[in-house]
Design a protein that fits this description.
Layout (H helix, E strand, L loop, with lengths): L1 H20 L7 E9 L4 E9 L8 E8 L2 H7 L3 E3 L4 E2 L9 E9 L6 H9 L6 E7 L2 E8 L2 E3 L1
Parallel strand pairs: 1-9
Antiparallel strand pairs: 1-2, 2-6, 3-4, 3-5, 3-7, 7-8
Length: 149
């Protein structure tokens, strides 16, 4: 009886400990979206990030990872990097927000509606915004907000 009670208490303690280790996804990604421009034959990836979870003066960069077959084929790549490297706030400053954006040409015209459907599908991970630096991926969030211009 005492042994099973000790095991139960240890199990509860372990559960509490592990739930505290569970990292909330997308701590840095405030918002993200994808815009398809049919006339210009381009796709624009957009994100708003916060450096609240980073140590001061930490360099980082945003990229968009494409897993959706249709969008990957249309752009001819699976990774889109934004142009600039960013750096978190300085010591003693409050957290900042950063806007990142990258427009790329559609190399292989296809069905825009199929791309939109693929991104909007909440059961799929067609486009993910990732925050990375030399140490690897810091954070990510799957994007489902898409519009057509």
């Amino acid at each position: 009886m005492k042994g099973s009670r000790a095991i139960m208490i240890a199990g509860i303690f372990l559960t509490i400990l592990l739930s505290g280790c569970n990292r909330n996804a997308a701590d840095m990604v405030v918002k993200g979206s994808v815009t398809l421009n049919e006339e210009a034959d381009t796709v624009t990836f957009y994100g708003i990030l916060t450096d609240e979870a980073l140590e001061p003066d930490t360099p980082f960069r945003a990229r968009f990872f494409l897993q959706g077959k249709t969008i990957k084929n249309a752009l001819g790549t699976d990774l889109i990097y934004t142009d600039e490297e960013l750096k978190s706030r300085k010591e003693g400053e409050s957290s900042k927000e950063f806007k990142v954006e990258k427009t790329v040409d559609i190399k292989k015209s296809g069905d825009i509606e199929k791309i939109i459907s693929e991104i909007k599908n909440k059961d799929k991970e067609a486009v993910t915004i990732e925050i990375v630096n030399d140490n690897g991926r810091i954070d990510d969030k799957v994007l489902h907000d898409v519009k057509k211009e």
